[in-house]
Write a structure and sequence with these properties.
The strands form three sheets. Strands 2-1-3-4-5 form a five-stranded parallel beta sheet, sandwiched between helices. The protein has two domains: about 1-120, Response regulator (Rossmann fold); about 130-225, Winged helix-like DNA-binding domain superfamily/Winged helix DNA-binding domain (Arc Repressor Mutant, subunit A), CATH 1.10.10. The termini are far apart. The chain has helices spanning about 10-20, 35-45, 60-70, 85-90, 105-120, 155-165, 175-180, 195-205; strands spanning about 1-5, 25-30, 45-50, 75-80, 95-100, 130-135, 135-140, 145, 150, 210-215, 220-225. Helix 2 crosses helix 3 and helix 6 (about 155-165) packs across helix 8. It has about 220 residues and is of the alpha/beta class. Strand 6 (about 130-135) and strand 7 (about 135-140) form a beta hairpin. The chain contains eight helices and eleven strands.
Length: about 220
């Protein structure tokens, strides 16, 4: 896989380039927003990992110009800006996924490979393939979850949990599996923390036509109300 990493931190550039190279990912780096589009066109990468905070042009400007120029490469946003508003703006600008810093290297690799696989399977000109439960819609191409026409304002952990459940509506997903996906590599987090995420997400789903159910001994599932 060929990855274009647009990141202005030299330490981050070197660390990710070396670590991902050991995982058979060819990483090309660019540290300047103004040069990113030129390298994007020249390299024709499989995936672009794009930092939001860049000199000259920020990541959102780079992304908007790329999409306007017809560049359809899947984009993973990397940023220290962890607010829901930043994530929604990024997704609406054309990003395919969002990973806040600091992140786990295994999760980064998994997300990059998932974006590449999804893009290859769907084809550049294929229509968006949504998954829907009630009035909730998960668009695989953008990675966003909508309630009717509005992007849902969810925390990264709530979004991660809901995505997993929407991939298999009506099927139980174990608490252990959800914990691994929502809190990857976070060994200091208590196991019960997944229940807090479920509790908060359940309140946000009121009125969406989707219900998050607890199945004792099995886990959680999402179904239509």
């Amino acid at each position: 896989m060929k990855l274009l990493l647009v990141e202005d931190d030299p330490t981050m550039q070197t660390t990710l380039q070396r670590a991902l190279a050991r995982r058979q990912i060819d990483v090309r780096v660019c540290g300047d927003g103004a040069q990113a589009l030129e390298q994007w066109r020249a390299l024709e990468p499989d995936v672009v990992a794009l930092d939001l905070s860049l000199p000259n042009l920020d990541g959102l400007q780079v992304l908007a110009q790329a999409r306007a120029a017809g560049l359809r490469t899947p984009v993973l946003l990397l940023t220290a800006r962890g607010t829901v508003g930043d994530r929604i703006v990024g997704l609406n600008a054309g990003a395919d996924d969002y990973l806040p810093k600091p992140f786990d290297l295994d999760e980064l690799e998994a997300r990059l490979r998932a974006l590449r696989r999804r893009h290859q399977n769907a084809g550049v000109d294929a229509p968006i393939n949504p998954q829907q439960v009630g009035a909730l819609r998960y668009e695989l191409e953008s990675g966003a979850i909508y309630h009717r026409a509005e992007v849902q304002e969810l925390t990264p952990r709530e979004l991660g949990l809901l995505k997993v459940l929407m991939e298999k509506p009506g099927h139980a997903v174990t608490k252990e599996r959800l914990f691994e996906l929502v809190f990857p590599g976070e060994t200091e987090v208590q196991y019960e923390a997944i229940e807090v995420v479920v509790y908060r997400l359940r309140k946000k789903l009121v009125g969406t036509g989707a219900v998050l159910m607890t199945l004792r001994g099995l886990g959680y599932l999402l179904r239509e109300a």
